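Format notes (please read before filing issues)

Several people have asked whether sequences and structure tokens are stored in separate files. They are not. Every record keeps both together, in the order shown below: the sequence lines, then the token lines. Line labels are part of the format and must not be stripped during preprocessing.
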Amino acid sequence: MKRIMISYASYGGGHLSAAKNLKEYIEENFPDYDVFLFDGMKYINRVIDKVCGSTYSRITKDIPWFWGKIYYHTQEPIFEKIIDLSNKILSYKLGKLLKEIQPDIIISTHFFVGHMCSILKRKGKINAKLATVITDYGDDPYNEWIYNHEYIDYFFVAHYKIKNKLIEKGVSENKIFDTGIPISKKFLVQYNRSEIFNDLNLNENKKTVLFFGGGELGLGKSKTLKIFEYLVKDFPDIQIIAISGKNETLENNFEKIVNENNRNQNVKILGFTDKVAELMSISDLVITKPGGLTSTEALVSNLPILAINPIPRPRRRKCKLLRANRKCNLYKKIR
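Then the structure lines:
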């Protein structure tokens, strides 16, 4: 039986979601393949993974403009050399795992592990086919996605503009496939709207807004609550489904705002949920950070998107692209 390894890193939920969606599809359609899913950075070094994850979380929540600066400078050659050196060191432990598992194909939904695998292949340590899934809509992909692209066999991208950019950067055209970002088959199912509204105790005849709070990362410490409070106070005729994910503090703050404004009848607060497809099927608008996976899910669900608090540079590029194609509105600031 052939083996497929799908690697991700938990810096934002989109990379993990894409990896899970790929695993789901492969297992259902290719039963002759053994699929192994793993968090590459956590396996390689839990301390580094924790530091990187918490640093990313703090910067994107509290000082997003600084993340834009970091992103800009990581495109410079000196940073490429630093990242290349660190990944060479970290790839040693990954090489031992790959030698044990002997995968035929390695699919990466985050550039960290994809880069390490390309280093190992360049050194002749592995013979597996390498595939990179770019979970981004921006039309100027980060250079880190295409490190050692000569040793990566396939690139799967969101749209043809990214494909053209990769070609401009020297990636061979026959390696690139503009397939879109992988989502779950749940978003292709026809749901019973009445049943879902009934389960939530909401009115099927009212306009419904699906609000994503950003989960563990949040959308920004105070702005998320400010936007939510604005919706609750100033739009009494709409229903709101707010998802706080695993962020208990955010969930408690949401509930406090709802109680203070007596909106318990038509505002529902949900923690972590695996029912996003069902919730999108009954919604009229989604308000979210412009992440690649959530944006794709909303587009497939034929939902208009109100994108808020985009991180400077990478996510603002996504918003510009979606706006240019008339699929997204960008709401920058709540006064």
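For reference, the curators noted about this record: The chain is about 45% helix and 20% strand. Residues 47-56, 327-335 have pLDDT under 50 and may be disordered.
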